[in-house]
Amino acid sequence: MNRSGCRRPPEAREPCCFRFGHRGVPGDVARFLNGLFGGFPVRQFVGTPAAAAHRVACALGFAGVIVLSGCHQQEASAPSPRPVVARAVRADGQAFAATLPGEVQARYTTPLSFRIGGKIIERRVRLGDTVHNGQIVAQLDPADVQKNATSAAAQLDAAQHRLVYAKQQLDRDRAQARENLIAQAQLEQTEDAYASAAAQREQAAQQAALANNQLQYATLVANHAGVITAEQADTGQNVSAGQAVYSLAWSGDVDVVCDVPESNLAALRVGHVARVTLGALPGRTFTARVRELSPAADAQSRTWRAKLTLEQAGTEVRLGMTANVSFIRDGAAGQTGEAVSFTLPVTALFHDGNAPAVWVVKSGNDVLELRRVQVARYDERTIEVSGGLKDGERVVLQGVHTVTAGERVRPVAPLHPEDFAS
Predict the structure, then answer these.
(1) Is residue 169 located within the same domain as residue 153?
(2) Torsional sign, CA 39, 44, 50, 56
(3) Least confident of 81-90, 138-147, 165-174, 365-374
């Protein structure tokens, strides 16, 4: 045994391996350190008992660092669930047979035209103007009809004078006939002249009335309150009788017009209730009822024109607005197994390939599931989901591009729930 405590001969050049358990090192600590540092060279561990104890303390500290590092790595491998903005969706309460695009139109639209021909000398309204009943909207040159009216008035005056003279002559002849001063034949001639004068006077009166009407017809008047929706003639243009100058959409009842495909025709009838939303009025919902359904399909589009009366349409509803018409299925509300619709914000929409999808938080384990859905309608801020969801399921409303399927999450309510009302 040499000075270093090893049994190897001193001529060996490689260092001997150090083994704890000699002076100054407890047995349990020695066994632990032998297992940890048994392969280290002896020259690094030889020395006095004090130096050996110092080296043991350093080794224990190094071992503690390794153990603590392993603990931290084990804790980091189990991250906490990611918080996501989600809430339970609620069905709209009604099932829909179809959702179709439509347009707001006036129930009655009539052309405004002159009843006589002539040259337009004035137009008093323009496209989009609102008019009231009896308002003058255009004027023809009245020169010719004014002359006709003046001539007819003169003829009426002459006929009136002839009638007065014939009446006076008749009174004289009747008095003379009672005295047998004239023959009966002369009295009959006087009576015939009076009857002719009376007829001529009546004819002249009718001609004068017609001439006055023609004069009035030179002024175009709105026959109903409404809005000017089209202009077909301009100032200085010669128009014929009945040629349209304006188109007037009547105020009052408002219709929503849509074209129904054959696949949805069987589910509709006159009196059917529908829900209408307007793109220009987000968040507003109107009730409409089918009042007219075309009996035949359009020759080109092969669709049936449906007209619905929009109930309680205020002044904010303008003609020409685009609409989405959702026809409510008869008896659908409250029935189990019926496909109901859900209104979600557009921020909740994701995709599964080419199909629309949403992230659903599973009940019990709060794990995310990417589920395909059927979108019935796309609005500016919301979508209407008609299939793929159940009432009460939790749907992620924000951050849909930052989560993955199977991820465990912690659902939190939105900061402003009114912005995500379903």
Answers:
(1) yes
(2) negative
(3) 81-90
For residue 157, give its domain range.
114-221
Q: Residues 221-231: pLDDT tens digits? A: 999 999 999 99
Model confidence at 369, pLDDT cuts 50, 70, 90, reads: very high
**Is there a single domain that holds both residue 270 and residue 289?**
yes
User: Over the Cα atoms of the chain, what is R_g?
Assistant: 50
Structure tokens, 216: 């009035």
Is 117 or 59 the better-scoring residue by pLDDT? Answer: 117
Three-class secondary structure of residue 256 per DSSP: strand
- Let me know whether 103 and 137 are in one domain: no
Q: Which residues contact 127 (CB under 8 A, 6 or more apart)?
A: 228, 229, 230, 231
Angle between helices 184-217 and 143-178 (to 10 degrees): 160
Please state the rounded mean pLDDT for residues 108-119: 96
- The pLDDT assigned to 252 comes to 87
Do 43 and 62 lie in one domain? The reply is: yes
Identity of the residue numbered 280: A
Same domain, 397 and 306: no
The secondary structure element, H or E, covering residue 32 is helix 27-37
Residues 6+ apart with CB under 8 A from 410: 80, 81, 82, 83, 84, 366
Q: How many domains does the chain have?
A: 4
Could you read off the pLDDT of 61-82 as tens digits, one per residue? 555 545 455 555 444 555 788 8
Last residue of some domain: 328, 360, 376? 328
DSSP annotation of 95: B
pLDDT at 16 over 50: no
Evaluate whether residue 238 is within a structural domain.
Answer: no
In this structure, the answer to whether residues 124 and 210 fall within a common structural domain is yes
Least confident of 52-56, 213-217, 257-261: 52-56
| Beta strands 136-140 and 118-123, pairing class | antiparallel
Is residue 9 assigned to a domain? no
Section 316-324 average pLDDT: 91
The C-alpha atoms of residue 153 and residue 162 are separated, in whole angstroms, by 14
Q: How far apart are CA 182 and CA 174, in angstroms?
A: 9
Is 12 a domain residue?
no
Residue type, 51: A
Residue 22 lies in a domain: no
Judgement on whether residues 320 and 371 belong to the same structural domain of the protein: no
Q: Is the pTM of this model over 0.70?
A: no
- The answer to whether the CB of 107 falls within 8 A of the CB of 255 is yes
One domain for residues 145 and 65: no
Which residues sit opposite 109 in a β-bridge?
A: 249
